[in-house]
Amino acid sequence: MPKIGYALQSIVEEIPLAGAVKFRMNSNQSPVFVIPKRYSLEFYEIKSTGISPLYIIPFHKTIYSLKVMPANYWGKPSTIDVLILFFNDSSFIIFNDPNKPIFKYNPKDIQNNFDYCIDIHPRNAFIAFSHNTGLINFWDGSQPNRQEKVYKLPVSTDPLIDMKFLYTDEVMISTLHDMPDNHKRVNTKILDLSLLFPNENPDLTFDIEDDDANLIIPLQKVSDDNPIFLVCGKLITVCSNNSTFQVECPFKGNPSCFDYISQNLIVICDESGQIFLINIDTDVSVTFLGEVKTIPTSIVYIDNGIFYIGSRVEDALFVKYHDDKLTVLTVSSQFRPSTFCSEFSDLCGSFFISHGTKNGGGAITSVKTGLFYKEMFDAKMTDISTISKVDNNKFMMSTNNKISFVFDTDNQKILLKNNEKTIDCFQTENGFIQVCSDKINIIDGYKITKTVNLSEILSMDSEQINVSKQAKKSSSKSDKNKSKSKENLENESKSDNKFLEIVNYEEISSCAYDNKNKIIFIAVGDKIKVIDLSLKVTKSFEFPEQIKSISYYKKLLAAITWSGFVSTIDDSNLCTLQKPHDFTPDKIFVLRSEANHRIIIVYMDGFAMITKKDLTIVKKTVFGHICCGSFMNDEKSVIILGSSPSLYFTDGNSMPLILSNEDYFCGLRLSKEIIIMADQEKFVVGNLNESELCQINTTEFDVVPFLLTMLQKPPSLFIGYFQEGIFGLMSLNLPSMKVEYDIKFENDMELSSLISLSNERICIGLTGKNEGKIQIIENVFDNYTIVGNHSIEGGVFALSKFNENHLIVCGRCRLFFIEIQTSTAGAVTFNVLQAIQCPSICRSCFSMNEDIVILFDSFRSIISFKLNGNFLERVNEFPVNKNVVCGCIGDEIKPGVYDLYSADDNGYLHVYKMNVDDCSMKEISNCKLSASVSCLSKVRENFVICTTRNGGVMMLTKVDEKLQNSLEKARDVVFDLFRNDNDNDKYPIVDATNLQCLNCAPSKAVSSALEARNTTISEVNFAVQQLKSYVAKICSTK
Hints:
Blueprint: E1 5-12, E2 21-23, E3 32-36, E4 40-47, E5 50-58, E6 63-70, E7 81-87, E8 92-97, E9 100-105, E10 117-120, E11 126-130, E12 135-140, E13 151-154, E14 160-165, E15 172-178, E16 184-192, E17 197-200, E18 206-208, E19 215-218, E20 229-232, E21 235-240, E22 243-248, E23 255-260, E24 265-270, E25 274-280, E26 284-291, E27 298-303, E28 306-310, E29 316-322, E30 325-332, E31 338-341, E32 351-356, E33 362-369, E34 371-380, E35 384-391, E36 394-399, E37 404-408, E38 413-418, E39 422-427, E40 431-436, E41 439-444, E42 447-453, H1 454-459, E43 463-466, H2 467-475, H3 486-496, E44 508-514, E45 519-524, E46 527-532, E47 537-542, E48 547-553, E49 556-561, E50 566-570, E51 575-578, E52 585-591, E53 598-603, E54 606-611, E55 617-622, E56 626-631, E57 637-642, E58 646-649, E59 654-658, E60 666-669, E61 675-678, E62 682-689, E63 694-701, E64 704-711, E65 716-723, E66 726-733, E67 739-744, E68 750-756, E69 761-767, E70 771-780, E71 783-793, E72 798-803, E73 806-810, E74 814-822, E75 828-837, E76 842-848, E77 852-857, ...
Parallel strand pairs: 1-87, 34-59, 43-47
Antiparallel strand pairs: 1-86, 2-3, 3-4, 4-5, 6-7, 7-8, 8-9, 10-11, 11-12, 12-13, 14-15, 15-16, 16-17, 16-18, 19-20, 20-21, 21-22, 23-24, 24-25, 25-26, 27-28, 28-29, 29-30, 31-32, 32-33, 33-63, 34-62, 35-36, 36-37, 37-38, 39-40, 40-41, 41-42, 44-45, 45-46, 46-47, 48-49, 49-50, 50-51, 52-53, ...
Helix pairs in contact: 4-6
């Protein structure tokens, strides 16, 4: 078996930890506004009318923080600034011009850290950062001989809350600590720059009687008469030499961020969204400015009363304070932290994520991955029937009211127009062939040079081949029962397809073209006519019933009749005729394949892929409804539009298409870059944007959703929600997202679990003060009804379906194994087979193979049980280092061995392999994420979705050895990390999110890095493209 690795790819970028800044690039330019993203900085120019984008700078590591430093200590004028960008591995880069970094620092010991304090000195090239280890890491950039080293300075070992340099003549740094007896303490150190040793300043070291103190604000105007810094919590503690005093302030929540407007004016936000102005003059006063509906984590004063308010958990805002009022100018939408993730829905081609919001509401987001169709321009056109290729940049469009025209996409103009209903067009050396409903035109130089009417074609004599006779002869070799006489076929067509009576047999229904032999095929009624370019009929095939669609590729002609019989005709006129499935067809396509031709049949609610040799179905998909198929110019793929638009390939794989308009009913891939789509009102020219692989649609609610599950009959999304202190359950119709069912539970009941038991049943878990309930809800005569109810002592904290008739319930320190019995009348009763004592309350459990139960215990263990007879038996307990937040079971790695995923409360994602024989486990990989995991869910086979508390959505998938090696090399080039191959059972999770940044890096640097890692850019590109394909296939329909 090939070696397996794991790739972690971001689908939705997390909200960055860093706050935005304003800085001056040069003395002649107005200040620039910078917003940090996870792997890039976005630069904006500040104008009197607002901000306008300048450019984006990509980086190869996760950005942690962004600071501004005076530039005069780097030989720059004092009127400009430099940026200091900190990364999660404690490295940083200093620059003013993005193309010319001033200094780079990379620590020898690289460790991912997302929880350290950082500050820079306001007047010197000093940087301090601490990882809460009782040490301050101090970097001195003022002296060249010290720049290559970070000095570790001892401070208090008590938990660090905040740390700031002070605006004093001596280099001082104040730290705020959480003390064991639940009070806060400020320690201030004076740094001896010659010895690089901190000495305590007793005048500015003291305890604070404010349990909520969490923010130090250094004051810019420092003198003997002015305070030196503030400590903010529920109160504002004003700190001066030898004295402190406190000021009452109206904060609703803890203060979270601040910025300077001037030396005396400071704007500050609290966690509730309130904004205040602190005035430091002869006294300290606090003025309320207003409130915003977000949770601020950074604020930047831009100019003219305009502020940028950033958030790690909500949308970012641009606001303006004017006329004593705070007004929101712009909302910068960000993906909100997730609470739960559903499985994949075949019907919608997406999975769903729930979110909560600060203002008491919530949202459900549908996430769909695939190739994004980007619209370039459109034009109004009604009643469109067909779109056909004329040239690489020209197409012919036809309407049902007999108007056809050739459109040039380069110049956006019409080249030819005639009053015909076009069936299809085929490119020739000097022009193209226009096959109309009642004639064929040869067009050269956009002028009709030759034409023949259908009546003339039907009157021409030619060689006649009866398909039914050939079909009976050839098909009897493989399956005599499948061959039918012409008479039987005609009788079946008449009985099963009464609508055939309305078909106009005096029109061409379909056509195809053999470019090599210059032969046109047209389907008329029950005949296929073979016509050369002189417009003479050379051959005629007669079928036992009317033909719906034909297609040709390399010596193979395929046809499908109105009732679903498929025929193939090769170059020796050998015919087959079979009915592989009982469906009503719409179109047929012949696709190229390495081993065998593939035939795609599009019908009313799905499609089937069959082989040329014996016309057996190798793939079949049902969509619910479908509009049409569109042939691709490379003859290896076909676009199928409908409820789940996708691109299908000859190997059976598919790639979903993300369309902004669900009403497209026909399309054409004009070239590799250009795709034409049409609906009832217009046609659109666009392309496939391979860099945008995700579509997010969010539906807002007045409630806070937090649990999700799905039912198949009818297609519904069930949502557990919370509103004004009461828990409830609602169902949404898919794909309309309309509310069908809504119930609220008793005031003292908390909805704790929600799972799907079958296509028509769900089970919920409720927890009260002393006991809980499990309830089964079923769709009975199109109404959701509670059909079963059972009390559980102590409460219900997690549920798992063991099989159709058994349920696993996690109670208060007990695991219940329950049998579900259904009477003939539909009533459900519960029989508790077993109650097993557990060490703690379990918040997550899973069942697998109908004989194993996995508990992710909050007391740092993963416990497994196995069915022995009619009872569960504990077989293994695997200890873990941290408390498990969530977990899920993955796929089978090899017979009897499965993936197991978990996340702990420290932000680590773990992968284990578990042997089902003895339930033994071994950790095979882990990685640190930028924030704690909020949800871990297997949305479908081979894909696990991980959401984080800072709004990130990531795909974790297994990759084969070839791709894993390419990812490793590409990652090493980008991240400059080394892989440890000593343990063959260790398969690293490659954070491959930013491999594409190589495209933006200087070519010389890339070449040097590639050479150092003994790899090539083509191998890196292979890894990037494969990851794109993996992401897109999360939501591919089967």
